[in-house]
Design brief:
heterotrimer, A mainly alpha (98), B alpha+beta (158), C mainly alpha (111), A: 98 residues, mainly alpha, Helix Hairpins, 73% helix, C: 111 residues, disordered C terminus
């Protein structure tokens, strides 16, 4: 019962975050909303594990916490540099990494 | 070398806690994977006092409770602002001097600022942080330098 | 007795945590510009998440699960400020200007 009520709070918060991701005027608003959404997904997965009586879900939540962080950083890096590989535009020409 | 051993022990501890199986076969597989990880990290030369700051451990234990209390206070403050009738905010940008000597100390300070709701580090320029605050009084509290002093204490003499 | 106290503590932390989660969500909608929304998102990411995890730790009844939940909290507390800084820095270097108090005169008239 208590897990369900906590889950309802998480879902309300997720919906508000989704609304911000839809209307958010700038790109950064959307990335921020996506990041916050990911944090709440972690909580939701852990809560679902308790609701369904399978605490193994906590492992998945742990992984998702790490993936969420890397995902946000990757998105920002992509938008700033235009690719995932090299440092790209901000590196002065002629200065190659080893 | 000290860092490599400590990293290996930490990784193996995490592995034991996460796996939950303690048969000899599984445990030896864990030892192999930990050794592989430490070898890769040593080859990347990213195992030093900066990425694995064991010298901070004891002082960090003293710093975290203080930071936790600050976070709770700031949360209540921001929650009040969210639910007040007209949004009771006066956003401001502050330039905060940091007194830390090492980059690690500056990163800890900047992250502590960001972790506290109501203040966010936007940019770091040679020891000066560009900090966005939700209201003027929050920023004035930050400029009083209590957190700066405590992070410098945490950083210690190194 | 012990069981009842544990149950009550869990309810308390879930209720307060849920309140802070929804506060963060409402702030994410209500605040006027990107930089102020960061602060609202910070509310959910710190105290809301921490209290919910605390409630689950109290209910886990299994040391390994409790440790995993504490590790989730630890990782969230390590990674959230870094991700937030990355977003704020990207916006700042990208030239997004924050709304400042002086710009709007009264400050309370604009949503």
């Amino acid at each position: 019962m208590m897990f369900v009520s906590a889950g309802v709070a998480v879902i309300i918060c997720m919906l508000l975050g989704l609304a911000r991701a839809f209307i958010g005027p700038t790109l950064y608003d959307r990335v921020l909303a996506a990041n916050a959404f990911g944090t709440k997904t972690v909580l939701m997965i852990a809560l679902l594990g308790f609701i369904m009586g399978r605490p193994d879900f906590v492992d998945i939540a742990l992984l998702y916490a790490l993936i969420n962080f890397i995902g946000t950083i990757a998105i920002l890096k992509f938008f700033r540099y235009g690719n995932f590989g090299q440092a790209g535009r901000e590196r002065p020409a002629g200065e190659e990494p080893q | 070398m000290r860092h490599a051993i400590s990293l290996g022990l930490t990784l193996f501890g995490v592995w034991l806690l996460l796996s939950g199986h303690y048969t000899p076969l599984i445990t030896s597989l864990g030892v192999v994977s930990v050794i592989l990880c430490v070898y890769i990290v040593l080859r990347m030369e990213t195992c030093d006092h900066e990425t694995h700051p064991i010298h901070l451990t004891t002082r960090a234990v003293m710093y975290w409770p203080w930071l936790a209390i600050e976070i709770v206070k700031a949360n209540i403050d921001v929650a009040k602002r969210v639910f007040s009738a007209g949004p009771n905010i006066s956003p401001a940008v502050y330039y905060v001097k940091s007194s830390q000597k090492t980059e690690l100390g500056q990163v800890i300070y900047a992250n502590s600022i960001t972790l506290t709701p109501g203040t966010t580090t936007m940019d770091i320029d040679e020891g000066t942080f560009v900090v966005h605050t939700i209201a003027k009084d929050v920023g004035d509290d930050l400029c009083a330098g209590e957190m700066d002093r405590r992070v410098s204490l945490l950083e210690g003499r190194s | 007795m012990m069981y009842l106290a544990l149950e009550l503590l869990t309810w308390l932390s879930f209720l307060i945590g849920g309140f802070f989660l929804i506060t963060g969500g409402v702030g994410l909608i209500r605040f006027p510009d990107f930089y102020t929304r960061i602060h609202a998102a910070g509310v959910t990411d710190t105290l809301g998440a921490a209290l919910l995890l605390l409630g689950m730790v109290l209910q886990s009844g299994d040391v390994l699960t409790a440790i995993k939940l504490i590790m989730i909290g630890f990782f969230i507390f390590l990674t959230t400020p870094t991700a937030t800084y990355a977003i704020a820095n990207a916006a700042f270097t990208g030239g997004l200007k924050p709304i400042l108090h002086e710009d709007e005169g009264d400050g309370s008239s604009k949503t």
